[in-house]
């Protein structure tokens, strides 16, 4: 009678999974390669273990901890995960050219976000957007829109090559940016920051100094000691002081430090 009870207890109940010893991952995954170092990519999608089964991932079963995580994660990853949607540059370009007011501000914010993610930049995508943004900056009547457009140009300048920066730094484009130095605090902060980003190209530094009123405005902003603009104005003046003509213009505007430095250096 005791033997019959023992045999009945060893039988698994219907509808229940048999218990598994810890480390028996071989019941769910293919056997690991024979070599000690795992060098190939596992392409077989394993059958995920039941949600109620609590298995301890142990390297003693032949898999490393990282391999176990990779196998389990691959089964849970949805198709197409991790892929970036393609950027519709033509749509962005049309919206930049035709957007009015809030629409232009919205697309400028979108361009800035894409550029910050590295999805616009040195290639032709960033190149075709720059002239359109500059054209809208020159004619934008709303201060908030101008700030957003300059922010988009800054992001493009930050991930673009010299050719795109040269396109941003035409005399006409720089004139539009310099005009923003005399406007409200947010706009002039963005304008100084954009000029700083463009000033790492020697030819651009020469052009900035030749824009009428630029040096005078920068000296005025520096002397005002306004939070947020003082440091950037000081940096930009220092960069522009590599040109003797700019140094003379700074002295005429009442900023003598670069001239004194030149005289001491002989």
TrEMBL record:
Coiled coil: none
Location of region: Disordered: 1-24
Family matches, as InterPro entries: ARM-like, ARM-type_fold, U-box_domain_protein
Name of this chain's protein: Uncharacterized protein
Species for this entry: Aegilops tauschii subsp. strangulata
Lineage: Eukaryota, Viridiplantae, Streptophyta, Embryophyta, Tracheophyta
């Amino acid at each position: 009678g005791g033997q019959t009870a023992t045999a009945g207890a060893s039988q698994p109940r219907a509808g229940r999974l048999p218990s598994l010893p810890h480390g028996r991952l071989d019941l769910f995954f293919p056997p690991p390669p024979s070599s000690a170092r795992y060098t190939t990519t596992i392409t077989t999608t394993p059958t995920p273990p039941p949600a109620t089964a609590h298995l301890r991932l142990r390297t003693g079963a032949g898999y490393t901890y990282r391999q176990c995580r990779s196998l389990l994660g691959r089964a849970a990853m949805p198709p197409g995960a991790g892929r970036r949607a393609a950027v519709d540059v033509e749509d962005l370009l049309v919206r930049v050219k035709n957007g009015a007011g809030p629409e232009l501000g919205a697309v400028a914010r979108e361009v800035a976000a894409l550029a910050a993610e590295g999805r616009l930049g040195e290639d032709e995508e960033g190149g075709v957007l720059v002239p359109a943004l500059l054209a809208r900056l020159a004619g934008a009547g709303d201060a908030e829109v101008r700030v957003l457009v300059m922010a988009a140009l800054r992001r493009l300048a930050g991930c673009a090559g010299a050719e795109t920066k040269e396109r941003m730094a035409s005399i006409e484009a720089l004139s539009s940016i310099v005009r923003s130095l005399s406007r409200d605090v947010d706009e002039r902060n963005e304008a100084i920051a954009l000029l700083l980003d463009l000033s790492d190209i020697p030819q651009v530094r020469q052009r900035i100094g030749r824009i009428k009123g630029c040096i005078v405005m920068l000296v005025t902003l520096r002397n005002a000691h306004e939070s947020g603009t003082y440091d950037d104005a000081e940096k930009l003046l220092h960069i522009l002081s590599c040109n003797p003509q700019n140094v003379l213009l700074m002295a005429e505007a009442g900023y003598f430090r670069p001239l004194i430095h030149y005289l001491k250096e002989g």
